[in-house]
């Protein structure tokens, strides 16, 4: 959609992540801003091929929507005041047309957890990292390093965290959409 939008305006150069106006009129730039700010929902989706399938299924059933999509591992927000939560709250304030948050995930098919801890770390580095994680994030190093795959549980935890967050602008509804093994999308409000 953004490429279609940009192709209509000859006076905009696109670099990864940036729109740089050329010698365009203020009216053209205002139109770009208006169309870009027309988000009506915020979607938090996972990362990976199965997450792509869930997102594709969700977007297919939501043809009238224009979502702002955030990606994160496990669709799980651990830190209620961390950078992902801050970005979500900032987006809700910046785009007042957003009135709902969707947390997307899948049910069943629990995959084994994997570790993001490099096997090549020396003991000193591993010890330093463990100390920093446990003292700065409040999480155990086991929790931080090992990625679980229970997306339905993580989606509900995240929905509960966001719905009850004191800084969340109101009125915002938080909904969870989970794709089951048969490819059906079940939607529930938090």
From TrEMBL:
Domain of life: Bacteria
Name used for this protein in its record: Uncharacterized protein
């Amino acid at each position: 959609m953004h490429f279609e939008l940009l192709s209509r305006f000859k006076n905009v150069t696109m670099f990864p992540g940036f729109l740089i106006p050329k010698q365009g009129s203020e009216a053209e730039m205002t139109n770009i801003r208006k169309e870009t700010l027309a988000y009506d929902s915020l979607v938090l989706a996972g990362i990976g091929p199965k997450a792509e399938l869930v997102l594709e299924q969700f977007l297919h059933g939501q043809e009238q929507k224009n979502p702002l999509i955030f990606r994160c591992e496990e669709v799980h927000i651990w830190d209620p005041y961390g950078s992902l939560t801050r970005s979500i709250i900032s987006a809700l304030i910046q785009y007042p047309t957003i009135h709902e948050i969707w947390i997307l995930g899948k049910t069943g098919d629990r995959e084994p957890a994997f570790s993001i801890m490099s096997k090549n770390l020396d003991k000193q580095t591993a010890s330093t990292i463990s100390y920093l994680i446990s003292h700065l994030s409040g999480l155990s190093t086991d929790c931080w390093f090992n990625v679980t795959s229970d997306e339905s549980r993580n989606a509900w935890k995240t929905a509960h965290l966001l719905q009850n967050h004191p800084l969340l602008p109101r009125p915002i509804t938080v909904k969870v959409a989970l794709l089951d093994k048969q490819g059906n999308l079940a939607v529930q409000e938090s």
